[in-house]
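We were asked to recover a plausible sequence for a given structure. The inputs and outputs are reproduced exactly as logged, with field labels preserved.

PROBLEM: sequence recovery
POSITIONS: 295
GIVEN STRUCTURE:
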């Protein structure tokens, strides 16, 4: 029987409070609460420093970008060191003038920046015009080693791609983490809203089951108006923590909240013994997966 290895994790599900200073102040308070409750790993939502600016295309928004390392990683690193926790954040990275990424950062409990992941899959949908801002990532699907385990960090739109989760698992990730910003068009009918949210949750549950790993997904909440005068986005929250069989360990609602829960990382060993999906993969038959489409 596999040994239990419990890790207390926290997800900070928040709304936008106006600007980076205000949002980081809230994050500091939430991380302090999480640490006081015993958390050793804290996951933040996608682009947590400000509004979800990708609802329109404007060159002025590039002023929000910053270098990594930079001011936010310094502040998050100090926060991680103060409370002895690992923090996974999400920033608008300025790599060079005219070259920007949507980048997750990992701060070790001693404050060091130990890794980053640049979002690989970039959407371009109504209200989510990310291709205007972000160059697709070039760091690959490489887990980041920390004191709490090997973190398979992905970002939002990556969550729809089983290949991304699988490659993180094949590289030895102990868990999958998704900083996220996803929501409804307020004008959609309720049935459509429900279908979208349920599909999003099911995608994460599928990644947990297929790879035998815990999954942590942290979404933002609140209504954010569109600079284009459109309906804006209602970010639906529903952040969750899943076990390696896709079971819910915890799930949030649609309001700002701090979730602190225990995850047994040792269960992956047991689940992979009874469901040996990695053993039975037909790697000799998957070459066509590298094709765009099989005509």
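RECOVERED SEQUENCE:
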């Amino acid at each position: 029987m596999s040994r239990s290895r419990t890790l207390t994790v926290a997800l900070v599900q928040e709304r936008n409070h106006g600007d980076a200073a205000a949002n980081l102040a809230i994050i500091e308070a939430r991380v302090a609460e999480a640490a006081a409750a015993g958390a050793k790993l804290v996951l933040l939502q996608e682009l947590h420093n400000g509004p979800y600016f990708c609802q329109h295309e404007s060159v002025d928004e590039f002023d929000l970008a910053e270098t990594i390392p930079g001011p936010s990683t310094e502040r998050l690193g100090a926060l991680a060191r103060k409370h002895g926790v690992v923090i996974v954040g999400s920033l608008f990275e300025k790599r060079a003038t005219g070259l920007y990424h949507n980048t997750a950062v990992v701060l070790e409990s001693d404050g060091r920046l130990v890794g980053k992941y640049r979002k690989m899959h970039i959407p371009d949908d109504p209200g989510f015009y990310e291709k205007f801002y972000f160059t697709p990532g070039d760091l690959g699907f490489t887990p980041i080693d920390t004191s709490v385990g090997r973190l398979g960090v992905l970002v939002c739109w990556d969550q729809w791609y089983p290949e991304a989760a699988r490659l993180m698992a094949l590289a030895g990730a102990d868990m999958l983490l998704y900083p996220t910003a996803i929501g409804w068009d307020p004008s959609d009918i309720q049935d459509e809203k429900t279908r979208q949210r349920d599909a999003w949750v099911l995608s994460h549950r599928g990644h947990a089951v297929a790879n035998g790993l815990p999954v942590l997904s942290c979404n933002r909440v609140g209504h954010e108006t569109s600079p284009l005068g459109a309906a804006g986005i209602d970010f639906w929250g529903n952040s969750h923590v899943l076990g390696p069989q896709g079971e819910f360990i915890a799930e949030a609602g649609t309001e700002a909240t701090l979730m602190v829960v225990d995850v047994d990382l040792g269960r992956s060993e047991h689940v992979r013994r009874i469901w040996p999906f990695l053993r039975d993969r037909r790697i000799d038959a998957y070459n066509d997966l590298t094709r765009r489409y099989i005509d």
